[in-house]
User: Which sequence fits this backbone?
């Protein structure tokens, strides 16, 4: 059985906290892999989306125009993973960009209509990534640390 591996029950992960300039956290999304001969009913396939807070709360994609596909796990016999890098720019046109100070909501939905919304509800396969830090608050905390140190 596949589950998000995080330590807190709020399903919140802080990223880019304490990083130096141009250092960005990454997350690997690993698709479940099955051996040949596994019963079809035991195979999980799903799609992970970046969605709005409301869609995250309800485990449903209600606006296909704004939901972004992050990973498609639909090849159960192949070893597949996707790497997400939390940077504010991307070298690829149409790539993902993660702005400091923003929250990003990911949910996992079955790509089999009979299982929708699938594991998002039943196994809480959803997560919030909180991208640290707003530039102004990061600079302010550094300048406060520097005051009175002479």
Assistant:
């Amino acid at each position: 059985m596949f589950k998000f591996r995080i330590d807190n029950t709020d399903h919140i992960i802080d990223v880019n906290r304490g990083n130096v300039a141009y250092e960005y956290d990454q997350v690997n999304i690993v698709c479940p892999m099955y051996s040949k001969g596994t019963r079809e009913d035991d195979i999980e396939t799903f799609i992970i989306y970046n969605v709005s807070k409301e869609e995250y709360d309800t485990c449903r994609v209600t606006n296909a125009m704004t939901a972004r596909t992050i990973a498609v796990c639909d090849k159960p016999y192949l070893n597949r993973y996707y790497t997400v890098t939390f940077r504010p720019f991307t070298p690829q046109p149409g790539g993902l960009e993660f702005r400091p100070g923003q929250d990003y909501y990911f949910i996992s939905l079955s790509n089999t209509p009979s299982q929708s919304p699938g594991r998002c509800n039943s196994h809480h396969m959803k997560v919030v990534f909180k991208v640290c830090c707003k530039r102004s608050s990061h600079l302010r905390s550094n300048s406060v640390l520097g005051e009175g140190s002479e």
Q: What stands out?
A: Residues 82 and 102 are 22 Å apart (CA to CA).
